[in-house]
Design goal:
Elements lengths: L10 E6 L4 E6 L2 H9 L4 E7 L5 E8 L11
Antiparallel strand pairs: 1-2, 2-4, 3-4
């Protein structure tokens, strides 16, 4: 299996005020690479294909950097 089809790719960012944490889930390859390469968060869950390629990632972070944008 490769990455999700374009029509199925998404990035969801949720803020939980009770825990004061950001929960980020993505199946967008560009966003996956950025989250893996930058140490902004602790990895909560990783989904890999049969070849070991990361095709989805979920991270949790206490503070989302103010300069953090995915579409740059």
């Amino acid at each position: 299996m490769a990455y999700y089809d374009k029509e199925e790719q998404e990035t969801v960012i949720i803020y939980d005020p009770s825990s004061k944490r950001w929960d980020i889930y993505t199946t967008v390859p560009k966003h996956i690479k950025r989250l893996e390469n930058e140490a902004i968060a602790s990895v909560f869950k990783v989904e890999k294909d049969s070849e070991g390629k990361t095709i989805a990632i979920r991270v949790k972070v206490k503070k989302l950097p103010s300069s953090y944008t995915f579409n740059k």
